[in-house]
Amino acid sequence: MRNLLLLGLLFLINLTANEIAITDLNETNQSNINIQMQKVLYLNFTNTPKRIINGEIFPITIKSLSTIKSLSTIENFTEIKYELSNYEGLKLLNEDAYQDDTSKYYYNTFHFLTTANNAKLPDFTVSLINEQQINYKETTLYGQKLNIVTLNPKDNFSNIIADSFELEEYKTTHFDNEHNIIIFVATAQRCDINAFRLNNVFKQGIESISESFLESKITYYAIINKNIKNFSFSYFNLKKNKYILISIPIIVEDDSVTTQSDLKPKDQSRERLKMLIAAAVALVGLILIIWRKKYIYFLLILIPLSYIAYFSTPSKRICIQEGTNIYLLPVSNGTVFETTQTKISLQEEGHVKNFIKVKLKNEKIGWIKNEDLCTN
Questions:
Q1: Which of 161, 186, 149, 168 is nearest to 242 (CA)?
Q2: Residue 339 pLDDT
Q3: What is the pLDDT of residue 177?
């Protein structure tokens, strides 16, 4: 009996020792793997800017070795994951980095918007993700303080800092007795286009916007004094490292906006010239009728006189319901600058698709939806 107890005790001691040895071996192997991983993934910044302007969008690219895929100990790793922390004065614009792994290195690029005079890059902590979605914290690349410069622009600065900012189309129309309204479409590269603002204007706003830190587009309006003949503003060009002046010649149009994108200015003198030509043709036709006594020349009078009568006909009046929104542009989600308090009758100036252009009693020009017309 005593021998049996002794054998059992020896068996338990041996089993416990083996378990401890296996545990130590597993921990040692995992430690070795982690040590090996520490040695095979190296991180560093490749393009940290020496100077950044407050309000500028800039990229940060992190370079890391991609040879980790060939190591048998961690060959099941399928992804490199970044965690960003401890950054100041910056706004992260893309949480998922743009990755290029076509070479023996990984290049992961993040874009940031500078929002303060003091800024610091994030600490980038890298995790290797295996097929079982298990994270192994590999290493951390610590961010550094950035050299931030604040601009001291003139009064005409539009708050835009970009690689480029270009007008695509523009148009100026009558707004009221004291103001005109400018509408323009602009595109930009590497720009926080939502920051666009103008100084010394009566009213302004965004009609539509397509935001992207690489390429963006905006439709903007500004209501300005009638005595302005040339409207201008500036932006800071990052590539040229200087302010660029944008100028819009003020050519006021009385005709309707045909579409939101039809913003290019037209010379109103052409319409007057057409009417003068039509009148001249009608006069020639009248002379030929009197001279040759042939009434076929009556067509030379009828057609141009019809043209003149069409463009000279006073605008008709329409009934608008109470609570109707008056829009600056014929856009469904556009800016509402006035709402009717009662049912009113207004002068129709033109129409575009589902909108009617109207002249208000205070001489302002706006747009209403077709559905807001009186039903009875």
A1: 161
A2: 84
A3: 83
Distances (CA, A) of 83 to 52, 92, 156, 228, 366: 23, 12, 40, 52, 50
Cβ contact 268:186 at 8 Å: no
Q: Residue 141's beta-bridge partner residues?
A: 124
**All residues at 6 or more sequence positions from 90 whose CB lies less than 8 Å from its CB, including other chains:** 112, 113, 114, 115, 119, 120, 121, 122
How far is it, in rounded angstroms, from Cα 254 to Cα 90?
46
* pLDDT single digits (tens) 250-277: 988 654 443 344 444 444 455 566 667 7
Q: How far apart are CA 344 and CA 3, in angstroms?
A: 113
**Would you say residue 287 has pLDDT above 90?**
no
CA 245 to chain centre: 21
Average pLDDT over residues 1-8: 51
User: How large is the average pLDDT for residues 165-189?
Assistant: 90
With beta carbons less than 8 A apart as the criterion, state whether 64 and 41 touch.
yes
DSSP single-letter state for residue 145:
B
**What span, in angstroms and rounded, lies between the C-alpha atoms of 190 and 237?**
10
Whether the per-residue pLDDT at 60 is higher than 50: the answer is yes
Q: Which helix (H) or strand (E) holds 8?
A: helix 2-40
The pairs formed by 93-99 with CB atoms below 8 angstroms and a separation of 24 or more are 93/57, 93/213, 94/213, 97/62
Is the separation of the CB atoms in 373 and 320 below 8 Å? yes
Contact 277, 300 (CB under 8 A): no
In this structure, what DSSP letter does residue 164 have?
A: E
Pick from 209-223, 318-332, 355-369 the range whose average pLDDT is largest.
Answer: 209-223
Q: 87 and 60 in contact (C-beta within 8 Å)?
A: no
Q: How far apart are CA 214 and CA 222, in angstroms?
A: 25
Q: Which residue has the tokens 């097929």?
A: 131
132 residue type, one letter: Q
Instruction: Tell me which range, 22-31, 211-220, 287-296, is most confidently predicted by mean pLDDT.
Output: 211-220
| Residue environment code for 263-292, b if the CB has 16+ CB neighbours within 10 A, otherwise e | bebeeeeeeeeeeeebeebbeebeebbeee
Count of positions (residues) in the chain: 376
Q: Are 83 and 97 in contact (CB under 8 A)?
A: no
Is the pTM above the cut of 0.85? no
Helix, strand, or coil (residue 111) = strand
